[in-house]
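Page 47, continued from p. 46.
Same chain as before, 137 aa.
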Amino acid sequence: MTRTEEVKAFFNKEERKREEWQDSAVRHQTRIDQWVGGGKQVPGFMAPKKNHIKFLLCSLHTVLWEGNNWEVIGMDKMADPNQVKKYYRKAMMMCHPDKINTQTETNADKVFIANRCFAALNDAFNEFKNEPGVNLN
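Result:
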């Protein structure tokens, strides 16, 4: 294979990845927006507080990819800020971009969902740390 063919193959592969990412966005963005609280309200459901870490952790299983190993967490486990921190760290380990290797991962949906969840959880936890009465060890 010549250098020109290698470069063409590389750019074709990157183009396919970008198209897969866009397809994943079309399939999953609305659901993730609803999960974060920024999308349209689902009829019959009370609108959650936008981007609250406790809500996001308790409902994370509803937006993750198939075959994930996230345990369903009840709101009863979210009373203590240190428990929130513990589950936040577990979620970060699952969704962290370095843990989802974008070079070898072929499931574009998994990569897209992990990136969006990582960003939403990170923003929500940073807000949570600044709430009155939250002391984290």
